[in-house]
Structure formats: structure tokens, C-alpha cells
Specification:
Largest sheet: none
Number of strands: 0
Oligomer: single chain
CATH topology of the largest domain: MetI-like fold
CATH architecture of the largest domain: Orthogonal Bundle
Number of domains: 2
CATH class of the largest domain: Mainly Alpha
């Protein structure tokens, strides 16, 4: 187990290096730079060229890539934002907490919905309960998260007024206020988290349903039933437990997906997380912020894959993942 974990961790290093190189090349291929289209009429072409020289934008691509990587590895310095005029790590740090809170609540709601629905659908397959749940999953597969977010925002935000329609906390609130401040944060999180959870949960429901139906036909389940075991004991001890193990192994992938998939929902709800920051960095050609966020999203996926493999080995040591 330890040998596999160490080997799997070492594989992440070249993956991150390749990812950083690809991210840099994508940013390099985009038209313009941070000074393109500046609205300051006092800056002449010559002055803009001087600024590009000072910022290192005229250096060869390999020099710029090397400087960027060395800064990240040696000083954890991802550069400086041209738009915000502050270090990239400070900008991302301010918003990353909001995204992590949103992703955590989304994950809790998703599993709270998916596990009961998957169990009911699998145990009572081909009944009216299963048909209703299956219809919901088909609807979820066909509906983009952004559309679900807009529907919930319009219905429960603008029409009914039950939830806020933007921001991460009510204006004027501060951490010094204690419990009211944290309740306000939670109130602002519920609607965007629910909009993501209702859509992302459908895959888990279908997977859990399929696992339960498949396990019901396994020989060891048929043997347990032949011995006269109580049906509830068969499901609770043998079927549900084995069906939930692969779901736990997907936890790493789910976390990475929620962090990377926050862009659209944060845009819809005007939520101040890294998703909105990412969109703003693209439109403003703030390449330092954009490259850092793409690298963060990619690294989250790589780390999520690593965690999923480790969890899979923990729940079933017989599995060897190459």
C-alpha cells in the first residue's frame, strides 16, 4: 500500500510539469497581452512598448516559462496581476475560500440526495419509485448546470425572495458579528450549491442503482438468501455496503470536478469565487491570474485522481491500479 502510494505520488510530478507547460502554451497562443486594448489615452505606442519590456512580455517564450516555473517552485510566486496590481496568490487566496465552502456544501447535498435515491431505485427497480427516480436522472443528464442555476435563481431568488441573488454574504456583515455572519454565508451558499448538486448527483444515482442490481445477481448474495437470511440483513450488510465502496473511491474526482466546475455557477449567481475571477482574467487578458487558475484546476484533477486511486486501494486491497 505504501509503495503504491509513493509511486502514484511520484507520477504526479511529471504530470504537473507537463500541465504547466501546456497551460503556458495555451496562454501564449491567445491574441494580445495584458497591455492590449488599454484605455489610458496618455500611453503612446512607444510607452506601451517600454511597459512590455519592463514586464518581460518581449522575452522569448522559454525565458518567460522558466521564470514563471522558477518563481512557483522556489518562492510559491505565481506572478503579479496586471489588472489588480497585487500578487496572484493574494487574489486567489481571497476567493478560494468561497469556492471551497461552496464545493463542500455541494458535495454534502449531492451525497445526501444521491445515496438514498440510488438505494431506493436499485432495491425497488422496475417499480414506480424506480421510474420516477430514473426520470429525474434523465432530466438531470439533459439539463446543463447553468440552466438549472438560472431556473433556481429566477424561482427562489427573484420571484419568491427566499435566497440571495448574489454575493457571498449580506452587505455590512463582518466576521466580528459571530453567528449571524456565518448564517448569512450559509444562506448565500445554499442556492448555488443546490443548483450544482441537483445535476451532478444523477450520475452517482445511476451508478449506485446499477451496482445494487448487479450485486443482487452475484453468487454470494444468492447463497446468503438460500441460507434463509432476512432480506433487510441481505441488503444492509451485503449489498449496500459493497455498492457504496466504489462511490467512496470517486470522492477525489468529485472534489476536483466541483472546484473546476465552479466557473459557470459562480458566474450565474455573481458569487465571488475563483470561477468569476477566472472569467474576468480571460476577458481582461490578465494572463498571470488565468494561467495560475488553469494550473490550479488541472492540479486539482490530478490530485483528485491520486486520492481516488488511494481510496480504491484502501477499500479493496485486492485491486492493483497501474
Amino acid at each position: 500500500m505504501l509503495q503504491f502510494t509513493l509511486r502514484r505520488f511520484l507520477i504526479m510530478i511529471p504530470q504537473l510539469i507537463v500541465l504547466s507547460f501546456v497551460v503556458f502554451l495555451i496562454a501564449l497562443a491567445m491574441p494580445g497581452d495584458a497591455l492590449t486594448g488599454t484605455l489610458d489615452p496618455n500611453l503612446t505606442v512607444e510607452m506601451l512598448e517600454i511597459q512590455r519590456e519592463l514586464l518581460g512580455l518581449n522575452n522569448p517564450w522559454y525565458v518567460r516559462y522558466w521564470d514563471w516555473i522558477v518563481g512557483i517552485v522556489t518562492r510559491f510566486d505565481f506572478g503579479r496581476s496586471f489588472t489588480w496590481q497585487m500578487p496572484v496568490t493574494a487574489i486567489i487566496g481571497e476567493r478560494l475560500g468561497n469556492t471551497l465552502r461552496l464545493s463542500t456544501l455541494t458535495l454534502v447535498i449531492m451525497y445526501a440526495i444521491a445515496i438514498p435515491l440510488g438505494i431506493i431505485s436499485g432495491r425497488h427497480h422496475d417499480t414506480w419509485k424506480d421510474k420516477i427516480i430514473t426520470a429525474y436522472t434523465y432530466l438531470g443528464f439533459g439539463m446543463p448546470t447553468m440552466v438549472a442555476g438560472l431556473l433556481l435563481l429566477f424561482s427562489f431568488g427573484f420571484n419568491l425572495g427566499w435566497f440571495p441573488t448574489g454575493l457571498s454574504v449580506a452587505p455590512g456583515m463582518s466576521p466580528d458579528m459571530g453567528l449571524p455572519y456565518h448564517l448569512s454565508r450559509l444562506h448565500h451558499l445554499i442556492l448555488p450549491a443546490l443548483s450544482v448538486a441537483l445535476i451532478t448527483t444523477v450520475g452517482t444515482v445511476q451508478y449506485l442503482r446499477g451496482e445494487i442490481i448487479d450485486l443482487e445477481q452475484r453468487e454470494f448474495i444468492l447463497t446468503v438468501r438460500a441460507k434463509g437470511a432476512d432480506e433487510n440483513r441481505v441488503y444492509n450488510k451485503h449489498i449496500f455496503r459493497n455498492a457504496l465502496l466504489p462511490i467512496a473511491a470517486f470522492l477525489g474526482f468529485q472534489i476536483a470536478f466541483l472546484i473546476g466546475g465552479s466557473v459557470l455557477v459562480e458566474t450565474v449567481f455573481s458569487f465571488p469565487g475563483i470561477g468569476g475571477l477566472f472569467i474576468g482574467s480571460i476577458t481582461g487578458r490578465d494572463f498571470s491570474v488565468m494561467m495560475s487558475l488553469v494550473l490550479l484546476f488541472g492540479a486539482a484533477t490530478i490530485v483528485g485522481s491520486f486520492l481516488s486511486d488511494v481510496i480504491m486501494m484502501m477499500v479493496d486491497p485486492r485491486i492493483e491500479i497501474e
